[in-house]
Amino acid sequence: MNPQRMLETAVSVLSQLPTRLELLSEDGGAIALEITGHDAATIHALAPLAGVRVGLRLRLRERDEHGAGHDIDLRVSELFYESEHAATLHLTVDRLRRRSGRRTSPRARMSDLALVGVLYSRKVKADAEFDAHLTDLSADGLAFVTDQPLAPGDLLSVMPTIDRRLVRLRVRVLHIASAHYGRRRVGCEVTSVAGSERARLAVLATMEQSGDSPDERAPGA
């Protein structure tokens, strides 16, 4: 889509949602916004001043009960101070993708421990490390089970062992679901991995495709 078409589509999607939304921040965590309107080029929103800046990239993940919806990537193009605690943001639509609720790439089913490091979390101390039970993995996403109180928007490093070699991934938490014995199943998108390792993960996932159903995974993760 061209920029004008992306803006029109984003406005159409937003018009069907509550005006108060939480968007994932590239700096970690989520930013609560109140959509107040739009002009010919940007979407306008009121936000807490803490955690926002010009150039900050945000993502709205809009999903229905089947996991279908849209990912809308926004960028803070202008910021106007309203008070010492609040600001009006002008948001440019950088990218808009429709999601069908199905994974765009295969994942390999896993049953191994992986070392998880906390880069940013609302509830877990930064630099904390813990072992988690990895359940599936691809070049684009993964899921693991843990008892740690993670939240959408948390930024983590995950180090699984593939072919007896440690692979370091940087991931963002997208979805949390309840698992057995009070634990949580954490669905993540991979945000950073070396090119050669990404290709190796893609081959692994293709060869050992997970046969799980949409009900067994995090929607869109």
Q: Which characteristics define this entry?
A:
Thrombin, subunit H; 14 strands; 11% helix; six-stranded antiparallel barrel; 2 helices; 221 residues; mainly beta; globular
Note down, in words, how this protein is organized.
By secondary structure, this protein is mainly beta. It folds into two domains: 3-99, Thrombin, subunit H; 108-216, Thrombin, subunit H (Beta Barrel), CATH 2.40.10. Helix content is 11%, strand content 50%. It has a six-stranded antiparallel barrel with strand order 1-2-3-6-5-4. Strands 7-8-9-14-13-10 form a six-stranded antiparallel β-barrel. A hairpin with a 2-residue loop joins strand 11 and strand 12 (165-166). It is globular. The relative contact order is 0.14. Mean pLDDT is 88; it is low at 210-220.
Number of domains: 2
> Could you tell me the strand content as a percent range?
over 45%
Write out the strand line-up for the largest beta sheet, numbering strands in chain order: 1-2-3-6-5-4
**Helix content class:** 10-25%
Q: Which whole number gives the mean pLDDT? A: 88
Are there runs of 5+ residues with pLDDT below 50, and where? 210-220
What is the general shape? globular
What's the architecture of the largest domain in CATH terms?
A: Beta Barrel
Give the topology, please.
Blueprint: H1 3-14, E1 20-25, E2 30-38, E3 43-48, E4 57-63, E5 69-81, E6 86-99, E7 108-120, E8 129-137, E9 141-146, E10 155-159, E11 161-162, E12 165-166, E13 169-178, E14 184-192, H2 195-207
